[in-house]
Amino acid sequence: MQARSALFDLYGDHLRPRGGRAPVAALVRLLAPLGIAPPAVRTAVSRMVRQGWLHPLRLAAGPGYLLTAKAGRRLDEAAARIYRTGKVGWDNRFDLLVLDAPASRRERQRLGANLTYLGYGMLDERTWVATRPGEDVDGLLTEAGVRYERFTATHAAGTPGAMGVVRRAWDLNEIGAAYERFVELQRPLLSPITVRSGDEEAYAARFRLVHDWRSFLFRDPQLPPALLPERWPGTSAAAFFDRHAARLRPAADRYVEQCLDACSRPVKQRGPHS
Q: What is the pTM of this model?
């Protein structure tokens, strides 16, 4: 687990609902059960500050970091997709992008990853499609300096034609198999965690569960049910995730509160003769 990715998970799942701020000592302590060393945490924090995701501030307990407005928006959108709090509907229309692809391979890969995260699938190198408009797509393409045209499109063949477009833009067999692997890998890790387990153990197990589930934000566009195959593995995987995430939440919350309390006490000033 990379420190930067884990920090996004930590802020999004635990610190965002608690004001989006924490002393650096708490960040180090909360990522230790995941096997992430303090130097890696500090390096990742510095990188996130440079990228505009975190803002340094002085807390009573010492130096800390606050989510920026940009990070808050991104994490709120990610949380809505992770926990599927929004309704996935479809008005039979696609959001279609035709763009001038960047010249360098690295820039094309970065742009492709960002478009995939926003729910777009690639029909060819210049043409991307989504079943609902990506809220940040205009800003993303403008910031990347990519010239583009954007259309709203419907398929003349109706739902059968739309399903054909979906299967060109996304490998649903691969995504479905990934959901099945997710359950297979997580089940033996979660079943030993019971009410008799320690809060730290439950927190770490739940953290890894959410971290692995979050990876589907970069591969599954969360298509409307009308465009999905029958017996879609993502449905049962989502039920599995919801069940265990809810089951382990109380213990995880207790551990987070313990760490924040322990690391948020004001730093005592030393006297002149200390």
A: 0.86
